[in-house]
Amino acid sequence: MGDRGTNNHSEVTDFILVGFRVSSELHILLFLIFLLVYAMILLGNVGMMTIIMTDPQLNTPMYFFLGNLSFIDLFYSSVIAPKAMINFWSESKSISFAGCVTQLFLFALFIVAEGFLLAAMAYDRFIAICNPLLYSSQMSTHLCIQLVAGSYICGCISSILQTSMVFTLSFCGSRSIDHFYCDTRPLERISCSDFFIYRMISFFLSSIIILPTIIVIIISYLYIVSTVLKIRSSEGRKKAFSTCSSHLGVVSVLYGAVFFMYLTPDRFPELSKVASLCYTLVTPMLNPLIYSLRNKDVKEALRKILGKKILLLNSILTVT
């Protein structure tokens, strides 16, 4: 990638994460908001994984995928939130070159893995509704493990390529990244490299990642809608749609925020930051709520766990 400057990335030892351009007084409020949201992410996703692992009735493909979704949400939000909260109190707001590489690599890995996992979940719902008699045989444990492993592998390969491409750019201008974490577009803004080849490769890479997942999700739901509309009873249609509504809500929030961020012109960086908040923190916070509030099995499993805890506490209090 042709350079237009004399310095290259090897001479950059750190970057400055500008974050949100607000007054210092508002930094305290933002810190408290981030802290509250991150606490809810930890509580919700760790709780969801615990419920799924401890309740035998949730030992199904759908909940296997959901458990991995909670793991991904927990991990990639943890890549972003702690550093952002530290920077609200930091004067320098710096992040080392290695730290920036690591943050971008891990975030890219898990956000791409989530896209593929959501496609796998759409396929699972398609089999469950359109071919219920063949569900057990088609959605075998072996296939579920392959789909999840494939999601992580695709995320890893994509992240290696994306991170390598970004950090082969030359940063010969400002070290200030106008964002609250290391992301591709803010890093591109401070590069002085020729972007033609970079953007061609980046567009190709994005196409082979985003298009297949969206196509799988859309085709799955077209078949699902077609099948559900053939159900004569309104109760049956409602029950079938309820099994998909949570997944569809998660897909809409994630892809809506991603598209909004990457379609926002560079001259509106603050809008990009707000959109980034949606899929780095808001989506991981909402996913456990969406699935738990709209899912009878999860609510029943939660009641069992809480019931056991209450009984144990009562027995301890009685003994003492």
TrEMBL record:
Coiled coil: none annotated. It comes from the Eukaryota. Residues 44-291 form the G-protein coupled receptors family 1 profile domain. InterPro entries: GPCR_Rhodpsn, GPCR_Rhodpsn_7TM, Olfact_rcpt. Pfam families: 7tm_4. The chain crosses the membrane at residues 28-51, 63-81, 101-123, 143-161, 196-224, 244-262, 274-293. It is a multi-pass membrane protein. It is found in: Cell membrane. GO terms for molecular function: G protein-coupled receptor activity; olfactory receptor activity. One of its GO terms (cellular component) is plasma membrane. Keywords: Cell membrane, G-protein coupled receptor, Membrane, Olfaction, Receptor, Sensory transduction, Transducer, Transmembrane, Transmembrane helix. Belongs to the G-protein coupled receptor 1 family. Putative odorant or sperm cell receptor. This is Olfactory receptor. It comes from Acinonyx jubatus. The gene is LOC106982797.
